[in-house]
Amino acid sequence: MCGMPSAETMQVNPQQPDPVLPTAEDTVAAAGSEFIGGPLGRRALLGASWWTPVRVIALVILGMFALGMVQKLPCYDGAWFYGASSQYTHACYSDVPHLYQGRGFADGLVPYFDKLPGDMDYLEYPVLTGVFMEVAAWLTPGSGTIQHQEQVYWMVNAGMLMICAAVIAVCVARTHRRRPWDGLLVALAPAFALTATINWDLFAVALTAAAMLMWSRGRSLAFGVLLGLATAAKLYPVLLLGPLLVLCWRAGKWRAFGMATLGAVVSWLVVNLPVMAFATAGWAKFYTFSQERGVDFGSFWLIIAQHRSTPLDKDTVNLLAVALMLLACLGIAALTLTAPRRPRFAQLAFLVVAAFILTNKVYSPQYVLWLIPLAALARPKWRDFLVWQACEVTYYLGIWLYLAYTTSGDKHQGLPTLGYQVAIGIHLLGTLYLCAVIVRDIWLPERDVVRRSGDDDPSGGVLDGADDAFVLGQAAHPPRHAVHAVEGPATVNWGRSPDGSF
C-alpha cells in the first residue's frame, strides 16, 4: 500500500481530477500516518484496491463508535442505576437509559399523545426524534427487570445510532469529491466517540450530512427534503437555510434556493402536521420547553449567573440570546456579500451553527456532534481540528466532574464551580478559534486549504464555480475551473470602484 505504484495502477480516468493527498498537504496528517506505516500509496488513494477511502472511513468510524460504547461500560454495568455520582466520575452518563422509564417508553405510553407522570407532562423532543425513540422501544423486550430493559434499550439505540454515524462519515467523505479522506476527521474525532450515545442527536446530524451531500450534487429539492426531516428531528439544521439564502443571493441562484426551501417546508410539515393536529399540546412541548428552561450547563450565561447574587431572568436571557444570534447572522451575511471571493457553503454552515451554540443558554456536550461534520468540510486541517477537539474533550470531562462534585454530598469529589467555569471557557475559546480561522480563510481565500488545491466550492452544488450576481465592496469573481465552469449574470457591485471611489 505504501510502495511505488505500477504503470497499471497509475492509470486513472482522465475525466476525474486526481484526489487530494492528505499526507502531501498536511504535516500533521503525514506525521500521524507513520503510526500505520506511512502515507498511503497511489494505488490506495485512487481506489484501485478494495480499500477505497469511503470503505476505510466507514470501518474506522464503526471502530471508534465501538470504543465509545466500551467507554460507557462502567455505567452499563451499574453506574446508571445504583449511583448518581459514579456515572459522572466515570464520565459515562447517557440520557438514553434514564429516559426509557422517565418518558414512559417502559410503560408503553405513546409520545405526544399520552401524558407523562410527574413534572414533565409530555416528551420534550421534536417529532422525528420521538419516532426514533419509540422505534427503539418497540425493539426492546418488555421482560426482565427495569434495569435490564434499560440496558437493552441503550444497546438498541446504540446500534441505530451507529448506523447514523456511518452515514455521517460516508456523506462527508463523498461531499468533496477530490477530498474523500477528510472524512477521517469525523471518523477519528475523539469528541464524536465520547458523545455519540449520550442522546439522539446523531439522527439529525446524519440527515443533515445527507442533505449537504445532495446539495453538493446539485439536487436542491432532495437537499430541502432531507433538511426538513433533519429539522423535524432537531431544530438546528434549519439554520443552514440562512447562509444558503445569502450565497444564492450573491450568485443569483434563486431557483435552487426556492426548491430547497420548498422541499424543507413540505417535508417538515408532512412529519409534524399529523401530531400538530391530533396532539397539539404534546407537539408544542419541545418549543415551549426550550423557551421556558432557564440558564443551563455549558453556556457563558451560566458563568454570568453563577457570579450574580440574584438569578438571571429567563425572558431577558431569551431576548438577549436571540439578539446576539441575530447580530452574528448579520455579521455572517455581511461577510458573505463583501468577501473578495464567495465563501464556501460549508464554511458558512459551520459559522451559523457555531454562532447558535455560542449564544445559546445551554450547551449539552453532545452538541459538538452538530459541528464535527461541518468542521471537516469547512476547515479540513488536522492541526486546527485537533486543537478544537482537545477543547471539547476538556469540556466533556469538566461537566461530568462538576456534576460529580455537586452530587457527591460532603465528599465533594470532582470539579468545583470555578474549575467548571474554566472548562466552559475552554470550550468557548476552542469554538471561537475554529470560527476565527474559517473567517480568515473567507477573507483571505488563498489561505483556504480546499481552494489551494484548485477547487472552488465542492459542497456548493450550483454555487460551485458560479459567477457573482450581487456583491458589496470590492469582491472578485471566483476563478473559472474547466470542470465546472458555468455562465452567470454580470456582477452588480454596490461598493467601491477599482480606483477606490464609491
Write the layout of secondary structure elements.
Elements (H helix, E strand, L loop, with lengths): L21 H4 L1 H7 L8 H4 L7 H19 L1 H10 L3 H4 L5 H8 L24 H12 L7 H30 L7 H5 L2 H6 L5 H16 L3 H14 L7 H11 L2 H25 L1 H13 L7 H7 L7 H25 L6 H15 L8 H11 L3 H26 L9 H27 L5 H4 L17 E2 L20 E2 L9
Parallel strand pairs: 1-2
Helix pairs in contact: 4-9, 7-9, 8-13, 9-12, 12-13, 12-20, 13-15, 14-15, 14-18, 14-19, 15-16, 17-22, 18-19, 19-20, 19-22, 21-22
Key terms:
disordered N terminus, mainly alpha, 502 residues, 60% helix, globular, 2 domains
* Individual helix count: 23
Overall mean pLDDT stands at 87
Proportion in helices: 55-70%
Shape: globular
**Backbone structural class:** mainly alpha
What's the number of domains?
2
Structure description:
- The protein is mainly alpha-helical and 502 residues long.
- It folds into 2 domains: 1-49, no CATH class; 52-493, no CATH class.
- Helices cover 60% and strands 1% of the residues.
- The chain has 23 helices and 2 strands.
- It has helices at residues 22-25, 27-33, 42-45, 53-71, 73-82, 86-89, 95-102, 127-138, 146-175, 183-187, 190-195, 201-216, 220-233, 241-251, 254-278, 280-292, 300-306, 314-338, 345-359, 368-378, 382-407, 417-443, 449-452, and strands at 470-471, 492-493.
- A two-stranded parallel ribbon has the order 1-2.
- Helix 21 runs antiparallel to helix 22.
- The longest helix is centred in the N-terminal third of the chain and has 30 residues, at 146-175.
- It is globular and about 60 Å long.
- The chain starts with 21 loop residues before the first helix and ends in a 9-residue tail after the last strand.
- The relative contact order is 0.11.
- The model is unreliable at 1-15 and 477-502 (pLDDT under 50).
- Residues 1-21 are annotated as: Disordered.
- Pfam families: GT87.
- InterPro entries: GT87, UCP010361.
- Keywords: Cell membrane, Membrane, Transferase, Transmembrane, Transmembrane helix.
- The chain crosses the membrane at residues 50-70, 152-173, 185-215, 221-249, 256-280, 317-339, 345-364, 385-405, 417-439.
